[in-house]
What does this fold into?
Amino acid sequence: QQPVQSPQAVILREGEDAVINCSSSKALYSVHWYRQKHGEAPVFLMILLKGGEQKGHDKISASFNEKKQQSSLYLTASQLSYSGTYFCGTVNFGNEKLTFGTGTRLTIIP
Amino acid sequence: GAGVSQSPRYKVAKRGQDVALRCDPISGHVSLFWYQQALGQGPEFLTYFQNEAQLDKSGLPSDRFFAERPEGSVSTLKIQRTQQEDSAVYLCASSRGEGRGQPQHFGDGTRLSIL
It folds into this structure.
C-alpha cells in the first residue's frame, strides 16, 4: 500500500522551514527521499536504513521512526531551488520494491 | 556513462502499435528498475532486475508489458498492442547493489503518448 505524505502541498517564503511527513502501514526496511522538479527525473536526497536514524546534508535532514513506521524530512532556511515535489519511497522487508508516497508539492516564493 | 540514459525521450504511437523503450544504466550498477509515472502522480514500480535476472515483475500491468536485460546491462521495456491508458512517463533507475539499501538513480524518462 502506498505511503501517505503530509502535507499535500506547502508554500513557503525563502528562508522559512518545512517538515514533510511520510507514514506507512507496513514495517519498513528503508526509507528513501527524492525531489522531482516538473518534467525532470526524481533526484535522490537521502536514504535511511535503521530505526531512529537521522541523516542530513546542507540544510536538508531526515529522521526515521521504525516503530511508528514514519519518516520526516526537514528543510531549514529554504532556498528557491528547494521548490519541487518531494516523494518518500519505502521498502518493506522481503523485497526490493520501492513504493513511492503520495507526494508533497513545495513552492518557495522570494 | 555518467548517468542513466533513456531513449527515446518522447514516443508517440497509435493505439495497437508495439513500442520499445531503452534504458542504459550507470556502468557497473547491478540493479535496474522500471517505473511508470502518470501525470501528477508518483512513480509506480513495474519491474526489477538484478544483473540479467528479473527478480520481481509484480508491477507490470498486463501481459502486454515485457522487460528484458539479457546481458545484465542495457534493458528494454516493450509494450505490445498499446492502449491509451499506457500513456505515461516511463522511468528507469539503477543502483549499485540491492535496491532496498541503495540509492536509486533515475534517468530522464521516456514520455509515451498513445493516440
Q: What stands out?
A: Residues 6 and 29 of chain A are 21 Å apart (CA to CA). Chain A has one domain: 4-109. Chain A touches chain B at residues 2, 29-30, 32, 34, 40-44, 47, 49, 87, 89, 91, 95-103 (CB under 8 Å).
